[in-house]
Amino acid sequence: MQDSIIDIKGVRDGLLIVIHPDAEWQAAIRELTERIDKQASFFTGSKITVNLGNRPVPKAALASLKAALDRRNLPIAQLLTDSATTYDAGDALDMRVGQATYAPEPTLNDEMAAYQTQAFDPQEEATPGLLVPRTLRSGRTVRTEGHVVVIGDVNAGAEIIAGGDVIIWGVLRGMVHAGATGNRKAIVCALEMSPTQLRIADLYSITPKERFRWTRSRPEMAQIDGDYIVVEPWQRTPRKDK
Q: How far apart are CA 111 and CA 49, in angstroms?
């Protein structure tokens, strides 16, 4: 698969889909729909924003993308473009259209450059992640194909759906689905684990009511062991070899 034909990122209001400007249009739609069909639970209910940059897309081509997403119950909430052709096409299809903007990379002066962190070794295994530096309140949803770290609580009524691990530096009372793209090695960690529902890959668990009667909370880690989700004290490395 060609790199960067389709880029899907979790953003504050849902998912951002970026189509590479040089990709063949039908090939890009085909790759996007295949990814959605393979990871349906990850995309379900997402608010979709499509960024086409300065690529000129005529009405018929844009209509094919819109139809493909509509058939999967993923209507385009907003279209971002810097092309007049694409803007007019989106307007003709009654889509909400906005400007696609790209912030320049920040630059450091010579004094600050000395404090840059060393680059990762190309051989070192790493996965993109999302940091949420606040409590997630009821009604909020975070979706990403990578890991999620929350510095705060996840309240009842809030949801996290991640392709990787979920680490919560606080109390988990909401719903978490780790390994949503099928990764059974994903883990969920929290300083206090009282979720309304906990899912890892294709397995799920609901917190028993008696857990709420504990008088002493403790950090815990959830992971798959065999065909079950097990929750254990968070004090050692996860069984990633399972």
A: 39
Q: What is the pTM of this model?
A: 0.58
What would the DSSP string read from start to end of 9-70?
A: EEETTEEEEEE-TTS-HHHHHHHHHHHHHHTHHHHTTPPEEEE-TT----HHHHHHHHHHHH
Is residue 113 pLDDT above 60, yes or no? Answer: no
Q: Edge-to-edge strand order for the sheet containing 188-193?
A: 129-132, 147-150, 166-172, 188-193, 220-225, 228-233
pLDDT tens digits for range 150-197? 999 999 999 999 989 999 999 999 999 999 888 999 999 999 988 999
Closest CA relative to residue 144, chosen from 130, 158, 123: 130
- How does strand 220-225 pair with strand 188-193? antiparallel
What is the C-alpha to C-alpha distance for residues 24 and 57, in angstroms, rounded to an integer?
11
State whether CATH 3.30.70.260 applies to domain 6-99.
yes
- Contact between 229 and 203 under an 8 Å Cβ cutoff? The reply is yes
| Domain covering 129-233 in this structure, CATH number | 2.160.20.70
Domain boundaries, the chain: 6-99, 129-233
* Residues 10-42 pLDDT 10s: 776 688 899 988 889 999 999 999 989 988 878
Q: Could you give the CA distance from residue 51 to residue 74 in angstroms, rounded to a whole number?
A: 15
Beta strands at 97-99 and 129-132: parallel, antiparallel or unpaired: unpaired
Q: Which of these, 162, 134, 131, lies nearest to 149 by C-alpha position?
A: 131
**Cα–Cα distance, 171 to 158 (Å, whole number):** 12
